[in-house]
Design goal:
about 140 residues; mainly alpha
Length: about 140
Amino acid sequence: MGKGKFGMALSVYAVIGFILAALNQTVLCFVLLGFVMVAENNLNLSRTVAEAALLSTFHTAVGAVIDWIADAISSVFSLGGLFGDVITGGISSIVSSVFGFFNFLLFVAVLVFAILAIVNVLKGKEARVPGINGLVKRMFA
């Protein structure tokens, strides 16, 4: 990717973006994207950091849906104390464990995509995050 206007390798911005995506720091990803678009004004770098920002957005959105479903299921079983405190607590614990595992799988998937994207960027290629790469290309067309 070369060096940017501040003397730093442009790939550093992309790597930082994907690290932030893996850590589920969506706001910081978009702040980085804005900085890259304004300060560096490099189309390929902007696309790559946009992929990181959208990967982080996906992570946040899917995690929120998983949490929402878990809360809904737990709420159904705690309605009016119909099932008693012991059963409700046990069910709530099971639901929390199952959906916590789904959140863990989501984290692992995002981490794998981020690592693969970082490896591609460091090799001088496009990040190519599955599903997100095509969307970013259409956004920047």
